[in-house]
Write a structure and sequence with these properties.
mainly alpha, homodimer
Chain lengths: ~180, ~180
């Protein structure tokens, strides 16, 4: 496998266990609270990651491999997160995310992508031309943006409790960067 | 145990496994790179957390319990991180962090703190009067500020690779909040 792709996969395969270690059986005071109306809970982020596993990364990579730039990606359905989380415990969501990620990485490995494949181009409905390698790097960076978000949402729950130390804690100053 | 303290401990006891799942055996292209001169690597953050386990949280809690406001905390030694990491692999640092955290949580539980203990006051060399409960909440929030930092440092390593998607990734817009 190409070195850059190996590095991407090594991050992608660690995210389910990372979120499991952090969130499974953590009290709901941490996991079911958000930063205010219209913002995410940690559990909601896991539902979002599940939705992306189903509809974003591998389906878009397949679109690139099958259609190149002749058929744009389907737009991302921003309501999908709620459907994913409906009626499910956080433990069930973590299980589902782990299973889907594992299946998707199996698919990625089965494609046995080479350097010339990673340069193939696809069409994003808003961003225009993108490459397969950019899509796969974004898959890993998207995990990190949501780990960054989860750490901020959890930290928000102890804003008051830390008292004057709040001024030393960078995460408390993070303004959300438009939501993620 | 008090509910707030239980919640704090539940987060604190998960951090070593979270960092282990994310970082152990992750390629050095991720873990040994920083965001530019004078900034942290993911491995450096683990060394910092070790140093805090040795010199900050439990020693300061003990100072509160023994001396109240009559004897200020020792100032934090900002050079300590480098001493902790010298000559050690990331795997060794993760092992050491896990062991120290476990010992420190054993000590915390052994104190069997009650509500009135959590209200006890200590003296921070810069912040002035603080309570034991603020110190313990900050211990957990400090884990989260560094998980937030690690996710940003890792994401920095794929800034170029994600191409035009960079504009959708909040973590890429995070300015560092003065270093953490």
């Amino acid at each position: 496998m190409e070195k850059a792709l190996e590095d991407t996969v090594s991050l992608l395969e660690r995210t389910p266990a990372t979120l499991d270690a952090l969130l499974r059986d953590l009290p709901e005071d941490w996991t079911q609270r958000n930063e205010g109306e219209g913002t995410w809970t940690a559990a909601g982020v896991v539902a979002h990651l599940i939705h992306c596993e189903r509809t974003d990364w591998i389906p878009r990579a397949r679109r690139v491999l099958e259609f190149g730039e002749t058929r744009a990606f389907d737009p991302f359905d921003r309501q999908g997160n709620e459907r994913e989380s409906h009626g499910k415990s956080l433990g069930q969501l973590l299980d589902e995310f782990g299973r889907l990620r594992s299946e998707n990485l199996d698919q990625l490995r089965a494609w046995n992508l080479r350097a010339q494949d990673l340069d193939r181009r696809g069409l994003h409905p808003s961003l225009g031309t993108v490459t397969l390698s950019q899509l796969l790097a974004t898959w890993a960076a998207h995990d990190l943006t949501h780990l960054h978000l989860i750490s901020r949402v959890l930290a928000h729950q102890c804003r008051e409790a830390v008292g004057p130390w709040i001024q030393y804690l960078g995460v408390m100053k993070c303004d959300g960067h438009s939501g993620a």
